[in-house]
Amino acid sequence: xxxxxxxxxxxxxxxxxxxxxxxxxxxxxxxxxxxxxxxxxxxxxxxxxxxxxxxxxxxxxxxxxxxxxxxxxxxxxxxxxxxxx
Amino acid sequence: xxxxxxxxxxxxxxxxxxxxxxxxxxxxxxxxxxxxxxxxxxxxxxxxxxxxxxxxxxxxxxxxxxxxxxxxxxxxxxxxxxxxxxxxxxxxxxxxxxxxxxxxxxxxxxxxxxxxxxxxxxxxxxxxxxxxxxxxxxxxxxxxxxxxxxxxxxxxxxxxxxxxxxxxxxxxxxxxxxxxxxxxxxxxxxxxxxxxxxxxxxxxxxxxxxxxxxxxxxxxxxxxxxxxxxxxxxxxxxxxxxxxxxxxxxxxx
Lengths: 85, 253
Known about the structure:
The complex is a heterodimer of chains A (85) and B (253).
Chain A: H1 3-20, H2 47-50, H3 54-58, E1 77-78
Chain B: H1 3-14, H2 22-25, H3 34-56, H4 58-64, H5 66-79, H6 94-99, H7 110-124, H8 134-138, E1 157-161, H9 165-171, E2 181-182, E3 188-193, E4 200-203, H10 206-216, H11 221-231, H12 237-244
Antiparallel strand pairs in B: 1-3, 3-4
């Protein structure tokens, strides 16, 4: 594309964007972000339930056998599908 | 045993599925319960770090199911234990780890879905920046617009996949995904960004994707636009800027 056309297209596109931009309306950038707010259930101290033996009673993580039981929603995705049918 | 040796031995035993060596147990409190205490500690180490991984990768967990995810998480925690005190972004290597598992070798799209999930959380924790403001542009003459270098928000991650990973991710955000997705519906160009306080996951055209790539590497708007229309001749810059020039996608000049 020639230089002049690019100049005109970019100038036109930005001018349109400026014209369409609502002035004085609060944008997403105006909302406050609280410091220290973590994603739900995802603070960096994982020791909460772990200070008791919660993990021990619910899950046996010692097992290391490679028995992959794929029981999720993968079958809703066709074309790749599960290894075994 | 020196302190360094003790720490190394303890860490090695944490990551192993086998019984800890006697030399390590001898160093622990001798009340007849050393082995049980160690096993409780190790189990919590594996399970709780696995829980953190599950929160990072909820879609992967849904796709492969809870029990398969737990097995993989256990193996991952052993191979890639947390290296930082905070678990906020634990699981960086999980996409590559998934790709290395022979049993998952036919589920090629999993690692790209995992990359999307990781990028989402990294974007969530990315730094805040001031957005590009209208007055910063109106001060400039229009014929100079093409020479501007726009900086995308630092949270932005561009993800290209051969598979329709955006649709797979999107369908799994609801409780009961009914949608059947064909892998032939790919490829997918995904933009993950947090312009304000909310992370946005957007499916982009290849032209918009290219524009972001070029702007992100420091090119001028004019050069980036020319690259975009070469790859997607119908790419509409006017529409793109009307949506994204001032919505926080780009940083203050």
